């Protein structure tokens, strides 16, 4: 894929799916903006890539998202694509503590997950869209999840947030398609990333999570990144408001 001359933003770009996507975008010729709350890791990924910049952003802060886009406009003058990928889970907020039942989920955990995973996507979109309109259009991909379609016990916050992102993706696709902006989402299945590694390889979960996957393996970050690259590219220029199930056949 030839993405030379395009400027693409990746949030959550410092590790996992985000970092893999940054590397594929750069290999396709894009100028990549690596945005993450972890400054050191974001700088590390950007340092690997030609004509890349790193930005520190807390996507749950609308002002931070506005400042992120202002920095992109200052350096590149445009924005052709965005991968709104930053996210967390209840497990990451609880720092490995046992997952409570939903009626006992601390309200601060609920709020934190919704702030990052749903509000954060909207705050990014709200900041990105004006610069994309000024740039003459573009492509957006939001990270949803297998849990935008189904759920697991004790994941109420994450499930609610990802269902919300799925609806938000459709709303943006409907509203901005006529103005040359496509908005789609990718729904990863079980991906082996730093965010999930401690859970999916735990003896009590591994076999249960592998059983419904016909391919009998967990996804790699690169598996998901290739789907994102396609959705951002001109090869997907008639795909709008869609969700790519990158789940190895889990929901089949």
Structure description:
Belongs to the short-chain dehydrogenases/reductases (SDR) family. Keywords: Oxidoreductase. This protein has 252 residues and is of the alpha/beta class. It contains nine helices and seven strands, in the order E-H-E-H-E-H-E-H-H-E-H-E-H-H-H-E. The protein has a seven-stranded parallel beta sheet with strand order 3-2-1-4-5-6-7, sandwiched between helices. Helix 6 links the parallel strand 5 (138-143) and strand 6 (181-188). Helix 1 packs across helix 9 and helix 3 (62-76) runs parallel beside helix 5. The radius of gyration is 17 Å and the shape is globular.
State the gist of this model.
The chain has helices at 16-27, 39-48, 62-76, 90-94, 107-135, 156-176, 197-200, 203-210, 221-232; strands at residues 7-11, 31-36, 53-56, 81-84, 138-143, 181-188, 243-246.
What's the SSE blueprint?
Elements: E1 7-11, H1 16-27, E2 31-36, H2 39-48, E3 53-56, H3 62-76, E4 81-84, H4 90-94, H5 107-135, E5 138-143, H6 156-176, E6 181-188, H7 197-200, H8 203-210, H9 221-232, E7 243-246
Parallel strand pairs: 1-2, 1-4, 2-3, 4-5, 5-6, 6-7
Helix pairs in contact: 1-9, 3-5, 5-6
Order of helices and strands: EHEHEHEHHEHEHHHE
Q: How confident overall, as mean pLDDT?
A: 96
Based on Cα principal axes, name the global outline. globular
Number of helices: 9
Q: In total, how many domains does the architecture comprise?
A: 1
Strand content: 5-15%
Main beta-sheet annotation:
7 strands, parallel
CATH class: Alpha Beta
Approximately how much helix is present in the residues?
A: 40-55%
């Amino acid at each position: 894929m030839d993405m030379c001359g395009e400027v693409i933003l990746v949030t959550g770009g410092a590790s996992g799916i985000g970092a893999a996507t940054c590397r594929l975008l750069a290999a396709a010729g894009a100028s990549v903006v690596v945005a993450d709350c972890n400054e050191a890791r974001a700088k590390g990924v950007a340092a690997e890539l030609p004509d890349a910049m790193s930005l520190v952003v807390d996507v749950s802060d609308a002002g931070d998202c506005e400042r992120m886009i202002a920095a992109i406009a200052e350096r590149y003058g445009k924005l052709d694509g965005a991968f709104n990928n930053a996210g967390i889970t209840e497990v990451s907020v609880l720092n490995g503590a046992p997952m409570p039942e939903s009626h006992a989920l601390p309200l601060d955990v609920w709020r934190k997950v919704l702030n990052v995973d749903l509000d954060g996507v909207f705050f990014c979109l709200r900041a990105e869209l004006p610069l994309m309109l000024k740039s003459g259009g573009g492509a957006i991909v939001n990270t949803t999840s297998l849990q935008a379609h189904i759920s697991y016990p004790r994941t109420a916050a994450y499930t609610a947030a990802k269902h919300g992102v799925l609806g938000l993706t459709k709303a943006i696709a409907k509203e901005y398609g006529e103005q040359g902006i496509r908005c789609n989402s990718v729904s990863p299945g079980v991906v082996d990333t730093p965010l999930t590694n401690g859970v999916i390889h735990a003896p009590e979960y591994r076999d249960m999570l592998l059983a419904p996957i016909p391919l009998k393996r967990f996804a790699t970050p690169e598996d998901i990144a290739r789907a994102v690259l396609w959705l951002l590219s001109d090869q997907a220029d008639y795909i709008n408001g869609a969700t790519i199930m990158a789940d190895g056949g889990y929901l089949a």
